[in-house]
Task: structure prediction
Amino acid sequence: MKNFLLELLNNEALVYVLMALVPLIWVIPFALFGVWWERKISAHMQDRLGPMLTGGWHGWSQTIADAVKLLQKEDLVPAAADKKLFVLAPYIVFAGSYAAYAAIPFSAAFVGAEINLGLFYVISISSLVVVGLILAGWASNSKWSLFGAMRSAAQIVSYEVPVALSILAVVMVVGTFDLQEINQLQTGPVWHWLVFQKFPFLFLACVIYFLASLAEVNRTPFDLPESESELVAGYHTEYSGMRFALMYLAEYANMFAVSAIVVTLFFGGWNSPFGEFLSGPWWGLFWFLGKGLAVIFVQIWLRWTLPRLRVDQLTYIGWKVLIPFSFAIILGVGAWVLAAGQ
Amino acid sequence: MSRYFRGVWDGVYTVLIGMKVTWRHLFTRAVTIQYPDVKVKLPERARNRLYVNMDDCIGCDQCAMACPVDCITIETVKSTPDVDLGLTSVGTKKRLYVSQFDIDIAKCCYCGLCVYPCPTECIKMTDVYEFSEYERENLVYRFAVMTPAEIDAAKSRLVAYDKEQAAKKAAAAAARPAAAPARGPAPAASPSSPAPKPAAGGPSPAAAPTTTPPAAPAPAAVSTPAAAPATTPPAAPAPAAGSTPAAATPPAAPSTPPAAPPKNDTNP
Result:
């Protein structure tokens, strides 16, 4: 895609800007309709209907109306807040979650930046989101927000380690950090997907990464930094209008980013589940987005099943369950690779 | 150690059970009723907005008295005997103009106590429950159908009638001394009793205007009903005494009985 645009426009700077904007074509509609989708799913899981009127068909445009409302709201900065940091925080949050899209391979023909350390880059850049959250919580100068930020800090030390360790197990199997290359290794029928390789080690690594990524994107049961029912809205309590919308957009962008990692690492990325059948750049995009939405569905499903954990329970899960299991997986996968080769 | 693995397994297993429950509910039919579009049928005896069928209201004020929150205000004007307000659907005669029948539905507590005493079953609770208003004033429902002009007319008619009756009474009082001697000397006059009223059991000649007998016939109450067909010679004293309209009727009245018993529904 980059070469095609280069030929078309013959201007490298312009091409890079365009390439950077392409994922937005997906992220913004996803954030809009993802919220609607989640509301519908949560409603039906509780035997309700959810939004039904806005836009006619099952309230499909409810979130568009919400976004328009947020645009019209007053841009409020609390008098006691640290104004510069307060204004800066949502941008850092969104930048952190959107930057991850640079290395995510949407299809065989499109990845924002073809870097051979893609996986490493995604894991590290998405940690920037937490800096934004803590900044928001601190700058708001509100107790709710500060508690949310503190919980976020306690959370990151719980989930980052298992995230890195479970990914390490995958890297030991595929021997590369390049996400596009990991995708190509999984080409073929379903059993070529990494989740079914070195069974059960990579399957467990998938579960561990998925659980830790739930904590990374602050989803129930690990939504401690937000905790609507105890901290009002946690770190973004004091935000309103478009800044709040930006926080929300970043949250959903982040959700899809971690789902994309799960899909790429374990479920074949843009590969068709039927081998050569229905494969190709456009089908690849379809499979990638479809699988990503399926993972997001599981995230939503878990959210509307489980209650929120306590802080100590989250740290227990992070340090006492996920990390030991990750180490065991690394040991097992390492022994397997050593004995049988990749 | 085994406790630890047991705990991890329980954690995973119970989460899966929970996910199974939510998955099942995802495909369970929603219980939501899309209210403005879909309305649940109310039970047959649901008590909601009050309705008054003014055609049947006789202005008896019983509903207003029963109301525990005093949300019903009724004012009536007595009708004069010369007007026929008609019958209610249950056959009760209406005697009062209902000049005001206001229900302040904002005060109403929907107890339904006003419904039971109503003799004509004209006040009832309907199944209408969507009647919110922007102004509280609009929640005062005015059921009376009379225009102010009609009310004034009815009132002035009543005043005129009362005045006339007072005059008649005065005349009768004046006539009594005259009548008393008349009765004394002529016991035969008993059949006289021009006074149509008491005798009313039968043909009731007084069907026409000015029904209610004034005080004048009162002495005649002694008379026997059998006197009906009589041509009432002694009738003379009474008319002689009185006012002109009253005087006009008695002669007319006796003329009717022989013909046929007229409709007597106007008689009390």
Observations:
- Residues 12-45 of chain A form the longest helix (34 residues).
- The two ends of chain A are 31 Å apart (CA to CA).
- The mean pLDDT of chain A is 86.
- The interface with chain B takes residues 41, 43-49, 52, 301-302, 304-306, 317, 320-321 of chain A (CB under 8 Å).
